[in-house]
């Protein structure tokens, strides 16, 4: 409850900002159990959003180095570098993103989920965590149907196709792009000072925190 209140306050810090009006899109390629991904999301992205609000658009791609193989019976088997739980978490996150929730609900879900999920959970527990973290514009009932059905497979396959078209190719996660372009210096800056990096890249509708930080924002 506290985190949701904080996110509401964050949105009010930039009253004129809206996701639809933003000129900046951050695309994050990540994996559900990647330690470095967790560090970026929990220590940079989530607290940064509390200050920046909807001044930028967030485009999430929970796939990373996941692979798939089509089976003889028509099903798809996925393998992930951090084990089966990671594949299941990626599946859950894909289904949440597919609902197109408001950005504050999406980021709140990410923070809530990654704080609880681990390699030691069984699938039922991973779904229970999703239920605990759902709310607002995220429907757990719809999420469960998606995860247990073919829609999740479609989403993950689309992520695989999207990643295969990246230039340069994905070499690690978290992998960050701004407005579709890869800049290793900006990516490094975002990992170290997310708020400052977003402020530097925004052209219009800068939130109050950018003015408070000073500098050439």
TrEMBL record:
Signal peptide segment: 1-16
GO terms under cellular component: extracellular region
A Gene Ontology molecular function term of the record: oxidoreductase activity, acting on a sulfur group of donors, disulfide as acceptor
Top-rank taxon, per record: Eukaryota
Keywords associated with the record: Glycoprotein, Secreted, Signal
Main location, first listed in the record: secreted
Keyword Nucleus carried by entry: no
Signal in keyword set: yes
Name under which the protein is recorded: Gamma-interferon-inducible lysosomal thiol reductase
Organism: Diabrotica balteata
């Amino acid at each position: 409850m506290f985190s949701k209140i904080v996110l509401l306050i964050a949105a009010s810090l930039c009253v004129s900002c809206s996701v639809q009006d933003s000129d900046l899109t951050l695309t994050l390629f990540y994996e559900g159990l990647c330690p470095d991904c967790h560090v970026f999301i929990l220590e940079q992205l989530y607290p940064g959003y509390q200050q920046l609000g909807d001044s930028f658009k967030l485009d999430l791609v929970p796939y990373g180095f996941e692979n798939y193989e089509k089976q003889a019976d028509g099903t798809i088997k996925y393998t992930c570098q951090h084990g089966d739980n990671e594949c299941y978490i990626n599946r859950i996150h894909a289904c949440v993103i597919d609902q197109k929730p408001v950005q504050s609900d999406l980021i709140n879900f990410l923070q809530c989920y990654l704080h609880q999920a681990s390699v030691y959970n069984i699938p039922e527990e991973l779904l229970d965590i999703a239920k605990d973290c759902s709310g607002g514009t995220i429907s757990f009932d719809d999420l469960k149907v998606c995860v247990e059905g073919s829609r999740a497979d479609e989403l993950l396959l689309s992520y695989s196709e999207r990643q295969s078209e990246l230039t340069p190719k994905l070499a690690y996660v978290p992998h960050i792009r701004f407005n579709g372009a890869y800049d290793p210096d900006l990516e490094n800056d975002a990992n170290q000072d997310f708020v400052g990096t977003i402020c530097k890249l925004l052209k219009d509708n800068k939130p109050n925190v950018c003015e408070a930080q000073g500098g050439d924002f």
